[in-house]
Amino acid sequence: MLRFVFRRLIQLVPILLGLSILLFAWVRALPGGPAQALLGQRATPEAVRDIEVQLGLDRPLWEQYLQFLWRAVRLDFGASLQTGQPVVDEMMRRFPATIELALCALLIAVAIGIPLGYLAARRHGTWVDHVVVSGSLLGVTVPIFFLAYLLKFVFAVQLGWLPTAGRADARARTEHPTGFYVLDGIITGDLGASWDAITHLILPALALASIPLAVIVRMTRASVLNVLNEDYVRTAEAKGLLAGTITRRHVLRNSMLPVTTVIGLQLGVLLAGAVLTETVFAFAGVGKFMADGIVERDFPTIQGFILVIAVIYVVVNMIVDLVYGLLDPRVRVS
Amino acid sequence: MSVTEAGSVPVGKAPLEAGKPDTDSRPPARGLRGEAARRFFRNPMAIVGLVLIAIFVTVAILAPWIAPYSPKDNSWLSEVRPGVYPGPSAEHWLGIDPLGRDVFSRLVHGARQSLLIGVVSLTLGATAGVFLGLLAGAFGGWVDTVVMRFVDIMLSVPGLLFAIAVAAMLGQSLTSVMIAIAVVNVPIFARLLRGEMLGQRTADYVLAAKSLGISRAGIVFRHVLPNSFTPILVQGTLTLALAIVEAAGLAFLGLSGSDPSTPEWGRMLNDAQSTLAAAPMLAFYPGLAIVLAALGFTLVGESLREALDPKMRR
Amino acid sequence: MSFLQVRDLTVTFQRSGHPPVRAVDGLTLDVAAGQSVGIVGESGSGKSVTSLAIMGLLPRRGVKVTGQVRLGDRDLTALTPRQMRDVRGSEVAMIFQDPMTSLNPVITVGRQLTEVITRHSQASKVDARREAESLLRRVGIPDPARRLGEYPHQLSGGMRQRVMIAIAIACRPRLLIADEPTTALDVTIQAQILDLLRDLVSESGCGLIMITHDLGVVAGLCDEVHVMYAGRVVESATATNLFGRPSHPYTDGLLRSIPRMDDDRGAALHTIRGSVRDLVPWDRGCAFQPRCDRAVDACLAGPPAVTDVSVTSPHRARCIRPVNVAASSTSVSKAKGGVR
């Protein structure tokens, strides 16, 4: 068991290294050269020369790469061209918001997706099944930002049920010890603030959840259909087990295995999707910062964001792999 | 409840550990094509999808003849005032946008952009991906390891972010968008084809061909590749749908190629952001167009998958 | 006194856009306590569907089951699904063909055993575990205590099938149905499994229905044999009589197809011409007619009558021109449905 975990961890290394190499090459290929790109407007000849020395552009390539790697490990991505502050600091400040949003979206996707998928599988071929499948197809094809607009327009602008923008009511004076607004409200005893945060989260989370929801529904449905067809389900029936037992112990446990893998993958979709969703709702998270950075050609920010997100993505997927190994004894042997 | 009907084999964006495709139960490529075609055309999803695609492609190709005005023609600026954006009328079927241009014409020409980007990036990405997958699958050994490591690394960055990075790097142009989306698709196809080949490699008919002395290239091109064709086709249609959406996403973020006056659905959506309250339809039209175009390909892709999967008996 | 009585069992599959298919057509058979009955047939003959129908494991959509399946004093076809669940596993149990896919890969062997025990009895978890261990020992699995915590993929094919058997006999059913239990196993293991089944049956006095396409299996194990073709039984006899004096041309053809040590070298192997798809519906004539060398015009005149082929022992064939008929037999009973 431990060997399995260890082996998986080892596989991380080449991927992370490869990622760093890719990013390094990318920086070097930026328009105008890396120095120019990293300085942007403030690229006076002196500053450029300074940066070139700093980046070691006069040194051999492999030395540059090592420097790059060293800086990346220390999370030194330079200063954001938008704010002049270190990219790391700007990202750290905004990360809790995005994490809160992503978790909320994931929760929605899983809590609604798995039951729906199961339902569709059990009612395979009926209208319920068709509706669910069609809905999931729609979920994948509707662009997140368009959905965000629609939600905002209908529920916020027209109906006024939910706020149109931001993370919280701008007028409120609340403490934010952790940066996770919903949690903060609970910690400081101000449940009104928590509720306020939640209402601000609903629409963007719904928009963000659309793709993962659709994927989870499809995956669950396919997986359950597959399992229902398996011989061991027939054996369970032949044993005369109660329907509930069969569903829980034999059908669900086996069909959830592929679904967990999918959930890990969806995190990447969520983090990328945050870039598209946060702008629409002026949600002060890392995604919006990145979106603004793209428009402003803030390469240090873009670089930092991509590296951090990619690492998170890889690590999360590895964790998912491990969890899968825990659930499916066959995997451990190989 | 007892033994129920056949399910479908989950295929799609492969997790980091690609599984073996179920090749033993897949029939030889040629014989069952007719039956698959019948199943395909009997599926209402497929028909709707084909209709949507037909409309989309027709509009895209015939845009200059369908659009009543040039998409860049902004001579109606005078009719526009802040907060007042003329809606649908006899001369302007979908109204006028804040810069005085005919919305319908822009929408129609936007189809061209989307189709172009979709087709080109799909072709580029699929070709490169299939080629890589072929290399990995045909040679195995260290070639396989190297290629798949590379693919894994590329897949470690979520798709959209990868496209953003590439597009930002290549600068503001239509080509850069197409390349960006193509690059995102390379690892998907590479892994797909390599997985297929891996599964086929141990199939009985391959062993039989080998025992007859058929060369490796012969086996790959004349036997394995045709049998791997169907998942590629399915993935291709789905990728095309995604490419349309991704291109719109990139445009939404400000990374679209070409100059701002060229109509592009994603950018039109972005532009409509500022006038959302006053003229919501300006956002709906391009958004709806994106959805319908992508939906067409998605429906066809899904129907193809169902029709070509031998396990689906109903 | 037979405690399983199947009367006129008919299973019709209805797929939209396709004509209905009668997989089982008016089947009638009996199984007595302690008796081993073999059902022989090739793929498509309806033998597996028969077993699923008896167990009530056929899907409810698209399938129509008529006829009676009496177990003791109850008609299984008349039971509600919940009642049928109580019967399955405890009074009637089934052993399936492929032990690899028939066991849940992510649940331990022990759990898969104890769950059927606790389902049909008041046994505590501890008792059930103990019972499971002794069951594993009974079916010949070495080191049973360790096996309880293992997973199916850690066992060999033969051992997995033993586990399946253990599961089936766990609640001491009165009827055991084995659907091709040895087909997926090596020949040497086959023999062991069959021996095990024979022991269990004689020890417990339960009835056994052995479904197979392998005549050798039947010869070694079964008292009575029914040969199925196209959904109906075409010949019934004791094993000895069936192999000694096959009456139906189909059975005859099957037996002739088995190559023998004393056959002429160089002589062509005997086959039954045509294929299962060359079919005549039973209500129009004899389904086997297109492939039969002994067919005459009357074979297409209507469903063939059932002939008592022997006076001395129950041996019947659904044929108007049976092979190997003893001199003074011919009590022709024109029964509709099964060979009775």
TrEMBL record, chain A:
The keyword Transport applies. InterPro entries: BPD_transp_1_N, MetI-like, MetI-like_sf. It comes from Polymorphospora lycopeni. Coiled coil: none annotated. PROSITE patterns: ABC_TM1 (PS50928). Belongs to the binding-protein-dependent transport system permease family. It is a multi-pass membrane protein. PANTHER family: DIPEPTIDE TRANSPORT SYSTEM PERMEASE PROTEIN DPPB-RELATED (PTHR43163). Residues 95-324 form the ABC transmembrane type-1 domain. This is ABC transporter permease. Keywords: Cell membrane, Membrane, Transmembrane, Transmembrane helix, Transport. Its main location: membrane. It comes from the Bacteria. Pfam families: BPD_transp_1, BPD_transp_1_N. The chain crosses the membrane at residues 99-119, 131-151, 197-217, 257-284, 304-327. It is found in: Cell membrane.
TrEMBL record, chain B:
Pfam families: BPD_transp_1, OppC_N. It is found in: Cell membrane. The keyword Transmembrane helix applies. The chain crosses the membrane at residues 46-67, 115-143, 150-170, 176-193, 232-255, 275-304. It is a multi-pass membrane protein. Residues 1-31 are annotated as: Disordered. It comes from the Bacteria. Residues 19-31 have a biased composition (Basic and acidic residues). CDD domains: TM_PBP2 (cd06261). Its main location: membrane. Keywords: Cell membrane, Membrane, Transmembrane, Transmembrane helix, Transport. Residues 111-301 form the ABC transmembrane type-1 domain. Belongs to the binding-protein-dependent transport system permease family. This is ABC transporter permease.
TrEMBL record, chain C:
Residues 4-255 form the ABC transporter domain. Its main location: membrane. InterPro entries: AAA+_ATPase (IPR003593), ABC_Ni/Peptide_Import (IPR050388), ABC_transporter-like_ATP-bd (IPR003439), ABC_transporter-like_CS (IPR017871), Oligopep_ABC_C (IPR013563), P-loop_NTPase (IPR027417). PROSITE patterns: ABC_TRANSPORTER_1, ABC_TRANSPORTER_2. Gene3D superfamilies: P-loop containing nucleotide triphosphate hydrolases. It is a peripheral membrane protein. Coiled coil: none annotated. Pfam families: ABC_tran, oligo_HPY. SMART domains: AAA. It is found in: Cell membrane. Keywords: ATP-binding, Cell membrane, Membrane, Nucleotide-binding, Transport. GO terms for molecular function: ATP binding. Belongs to the ABC transporter superfamily. PANTHER family: DIPEPTIDE TRANSPORT ATP-BINDING PROTEIN DPPD, OLIGOPEPTIDE TRANSPORT ATP-BINDING PROTEIN APPD. NCBIfam families: oligo_HPY (TIGR01727). This is ABC transporter ATP-binding protein.
